[in-house]
Write a structure and sequence with these properties.
With about 120 residues, this protein is an alpha/beta fold. It has a single domain, classed as Mannitol-specific EII, Chain A, CATH 3.40.930. It is built from 4 helices and 6 strands, in the order αβααβββββα. α2 crosses α3.
């Protein structure tokens, strides 16, 4: 499932961002540049609205921001890595180093939830 939406061109191994908002913009801009998301500012609003409900900084240096919107042409996963770490309001209070941004089309059948469940399974292993 994940291998179908994660492409080597969708990885940033040296994020330039230093804060939560900037990292989201950097990841979303990659989606826009690949033609997967049609409007970066509007999709950022979708992701931020989701973040307002509760943080997607799940702890252990990992954040999994996600959004479901008609602005998304096809499901995609963007990976980003920050060597220094970014304050992401994580559940454990520690900086996030690994970011997995999930973009899902409005009509997808909760693909983002399946990916989150798979990630949690890996976390337990």
């Amino acid at each position: 499932m994940i291998e179908k939406i994660l492409d080597k061109d969708m990885m940033i191994f040296d994020l330039k961002s230093k804060d939560k908002l900037s990292v989201l913009k950097e990841l979303i801009n990659l989606l826009v540049s690949k033609g997967i998301v049609t409007d970066s500012d509007k999709f950022l609003d979708v992701v931020l609205k989701r973040e307002e409900e509760y943080t997607t900084g799940i702890g252990m240096g990992i954040a999994i921001p996600h959004g479901k919107s008609s602005l998304v042409k096809r499901a995609a996963l963007v990976f980003g890595k920050s060597k220094e770490g970014i304050d992401y309001d994580s559940m454990d209070g520690k900086p996030a180093h690994l970011f997995f941004l999930i973009a899902a089309p409005e009509n997808s059948d909760n693909l983002h939830l399946k990916i989150l469940a798979k990630q949690r399974q890996w976390q337990r292993e």
